[in-house]
Write a structure and sequence with these properties.
The protein has 111 residues and is mostly helical. The chain has a domain at 33-95. 31% of the residues lie in helices and 0% in strands. The protein has helices spanning 49-57, 61-73, 78-89. It is elongated, with a radius of gyration of 19 Å. The structure holds zinc ion.
Length: 111
């Protein structure tokens, strides 16, 4: 089995690619998802609610947006209110320091 993102060979039972960190799609097993429902700060269009829902459930964010749009265009106004409520209720995804998981450089003037 190879990584779907970088194509590297994966070990048996691997859940993440050790080269690029891509989650490995295992048949019958749901992909790992965000533990909490957050509004996404990246890739959002308005409040990040659709992006957060898509991230949480492992759905395509475009499909979530299209579904919301289709429901609203069909004459149901409730999703708009639900969106606004979700915007208020769901916390914004906390900022993650990009280098938090990597170790500091070992070679330096203080090493
Ligand atoms: Zn990979």
């Amino acid at each position: 089995m190879n990584c779907t993102a970088c194509g590297k060979e994966l070990g048996p039972g691997a859940r993440f690619c050790s080269y690029c960190g891509q989650a490995v799609a295992v048949p019958g097993v749901a992909p790992p998802r965000a533990q909490r429902l957050y509004r996404q700060t990246e890739g959002r269009m308005l409040g990040g609610v659709c992006a957060g829902i898509a991230q949480h459930f492992g759905w395509d964010v475009t499909l979530v947006r299209l579904a919301l749009l289709a429901i609203v265009l069909c004459g149901f106004g409730a999703p708009l209110i639900a969106y606004l409520v979700a915007w208020i209720v769901i916390p914004k995804q906390p900022l993650v320091w990009p280098y938090a998981t990597s170790s500091p450089p070992s070679s330096g003037p203080l090493a």
